[in-house]
Amino acid sequence: AQSVTQLGSHVSVSEGALVLLRCNYSSSVPPYLFWYVQYPNQGLQLLLKYTSAATLVKGINGFEAEFKKSETSFHLTKPSAHMSDAAEYFCAVSLQGGGSYIPTFGRGTSLIVHP
Amino acid sequence: DAGVTQSPTHLIKTRGQQVTLRCSPKSGHDTVSWYQQALGQGPQFIFQYYEEEERQRGNFPDRFSGHQFPNYSSELNVNALLLGDSALYLCASSLISRGGVTGELFFGEGSRLTVL
Q1: CB contact under 8 A, B101 and A44
Q2: CB contact under 8 A, A105 and B104
Q3: B98-111 pLDDT, tens digit each
């Protein structure tokens, strides 16, 4: 079975500051890892995904994440926060192996950006 | 290219009633997954449909059932509604190709169900 833990239900940053959202995973086999963003009253949109190629993954809107097997982590970062980044962010894990995969989501981290 | 569409967007039911939610997958996708997202929580997997069959199911009671049609669209049915069924129900589509993970899920905007 797989799971993810997102540390911090809320993260508050100032506009222009570094964004760091933490995600640790648990998986019995090599995982696939994802970050999704959810804006108010909308569905989830994929930011980026790790599928065992490069460990540093670049996504949309300037976000990136680094897969660290030794730390079982997949933290999401952005060098400079923008007001439009305020949203709910979800980390998700699924298992490599092919066929149908079912991502398991974390509880989410709400990113608050102050002017 | 149409994305994932869900209907209705909002609905209110009373305890004991039944509800049907509908989903049309992204063009070219053949697999539909349903998730329940309670307020302040992450999405919880309900079940996945592929080739008109339920392939996998999460930890949800039999009151939750579904269907997939030949055109890949899908329905989620919930019987005997409970107050705790109030949530945002998300449909996600994907493309299953044999031999490997095909990529991310594409989500609709959800159907918000309120049970009174």
Answers
A1: no
A2: no
A3: 434 545 789 999 99
